[in-house]
Specification:
Elements lengths: L2 H14 L4 H14 L3 H29 L2 E2 L5 E2 L3 H24 L5 H43 L2
Antiparallel strand pairs: 1-2
């Protein structure tokens, strides 16, 4: 049994009332003083590596939120370049239909110009979504590289 398991066992005994605080402290000190072997240092290194990986995972989960976009009804999702392009095409088609309908109906000149505003907004939205998608892919790549580096350490 390794140092970590032995310390966890002592902790459980203390929590169950089988050891007093003084007995726990004495037993813990004894285990730690005894753990100067190579096995213990390897276990400590493994714990440090595991903690570093867990911390990296938590940081990535928080960073990932920065790249998310709020959609309809508050649903959050990660943007994709394809989704951004499809959105721009849909908005542009709507804008063209709007402009043609307004011109054919003989509406005042300002109404067809709303279509141009829609097109510009659609293109801006597509560029923003594509940019965020690329930023996310870059950040995820950095995270995966760092995680692979931590995993390969022995």
């Amino acid at each position: 049994m390794g140092l970590v398991e032995e310390l966890e066992g002592l902790q459980k005994l203390r929590e169950n009332g089988a050891l007093t605080e003084d007995e726990f402290a004495t037993a813990k000190a004894h285990l730690i003083s005894r753990s100067t072997s190579d096995d213990s240092s390897a276990e400590i290194d493994e714990l440090r590596r595991s903690n570093a990986i867990a911390e990296l995972d938590r940081e990535w989960a928080m960073e990932r939120e920065n790249y998310m976009i709020s959609g309809r009804y508050g649903r959050r999702y990660l943007p994709t370049t394809g989704g951004s392009v499809v959105g721009a095409v849909v908005i542009s088609v709507f804008a063209l239909v709007w402009m043609l309908t307004a011109w054919q109906a003989g509406a005042p000149g300002i109404f067809p110009l709303f279509g141009v505003i829609f097109i510009v907004a659609g293109i801006g939205s597509a560029l923003n979504g594509s940019s965020k998608a690329q930023q996310y892919r870059d950040a995820e790549s950095r995270y995966q590289s760092r995680r692979a580096e931590l995993m390969s350490r022995r």
